[in-house]
Amino acid sequence: KEREEREKAKKKAAQKEKEKEREERERREKAKKAQEKMREKTSRQKQEPVVTGSARDRLRSRNSQTKQDMAAQARLEEKNVELRAKKLAELKERFSGKAARGDAKAGDGAQKLTRYKAYSSFDQIPKEVLSRPGRLYMDLDKEVLLAPINGCFVPFHARMIKNMARQTEGGVQFLRVNFFTPGNGKGVDDFPAAGPRRAYIKELSFRCEEAVNMDTVLRSFKEVQKRMKQKEDGGEVQQSTGELRRLGSFPCLRDLSMRPIFGTGRRSVGTLEAHQNGFRFNLSGGKDKVDVLYSSVRNAIFEPCEGSMVVLIHLRMKNPIMVAKKKTL
What is the rounded CA–CA span in Å between residue 260 and residue 276? Predict the structure, then answer.
């Protein structure tokens, strides 16, 4: 009997323990469901903000601004498409040889290679060159490079040469001469025809153990380039020069600073005079002056000192003028 009573007591205790566990489990589930409901409510409140009158106005203005930005972006894309098509057409025309780079307009007076000739006859080649075969020679008077090729001197005008470069490899000197080619600064019509195609040379390389003659040729070529540039600048500037007709009494502005700077010092301070047919700027404390004819001015722009301490008078020239030995517009 005692054993049966003990077993009954154990069963009752086990049942009570199970009931407690079940109640604890139910309580936890209820608490978990309550937390989930609270989270859903909080997230719903965050997702559905209260829109007031001022907020509606801001949303409307933002939407209208977005539409304007989209329209501006569409216009920009259309413009980019037009520019891309124009650029592709220019590249196609350039590489097809119809026009040289920088010569998009017809009849603008571009320098053509066909206008230049190295020598009109064999007698014009310097005799000292013929007495020393196998050496490079730069003729400064004719602006010609004489290159020994297969035992003969072949003349190349300096206008055909793009650049020169000398380098040393293993104690041996190399001089590389790069020429203009179709689509790379010159047009196809500048080169002689060889059947359906054009004949041209891209580069030549010369090898020598001593660098003295190559350095001389390189210096002479740079001197020729400098002379050619001076001729071009002088021809352009000559078109815009003329005599300034001065007046007895003329208006003038004093203590002005001119750009580009010329003379000595960091600033060009002087007096601007207005005469019958042009301006004259006299540098203070010196004899340097710059004359600008009215007929040479394309645009004259006056900028008052609004939001700045500087008053500007900007002159845009039709043709370049020389200021401090430099060409400027």
Answer: 24
Q: Which domains can be identified in the chain, with CATH numbers?
A: 113-234 (2.30.29.210), 252-328 (2.30.29.150)
Q: How confident is the model at residue 45 (pLDDT cuts 50, 70, 90)?
A: low
Residue 194 · residue 188 · CB < 8 Å: no
Q: Residue 104: its pLDDT value, please?
A: 38
Pair of tokens at residue 183: 């689509």
**Which DSSP helix (H) or strand (E) runs through 145?**
strand 144-149
> Cα 219 from chain centroid?
29
Residue closest to 204 by CA, chosen among 169, 241, 232, 166 = 166
d(CA 314, CA 301): 5
146-156 core/surface letters (b: 16 or more CB in 10 A; e: else): bbbeeeebebb
* Three-point CA angle 98, 99, 101, nearest 5°: 145
Q: Are 275 and 246 in contact (CB under 8 A)?
A: yes
Regarding beta strands 161-169 and 137-139, do their DSSP bridges make them parallel or antiparallel, or are they unpaired?
Answer: unpaired
- At residue 99, the pLDDT reads 46
Provide the token pair at 198. Answer: 């054009």
CB-CB neighbours of 219 under 10 Å: 11
Report the alpha-carbon distance of residue 209 to residue 255 in Å, rounded. Answer: 61
CB 281 within 8 A of CB 315: no
CB of 311 closer than 8 Å to CB of 303:
yes
The DSSP string of 42-107 is: HHHHHHSPPP-HHHHHHHHHHHHHHHHHHHHHHHHHHHHHHHHHHHHHHHHHHHTTSS-TT--STT
Contact 291, 278 (CB under 8 A): yes
Model confidence, pTM: 0.44
Mean pLDDT of the chain: 80
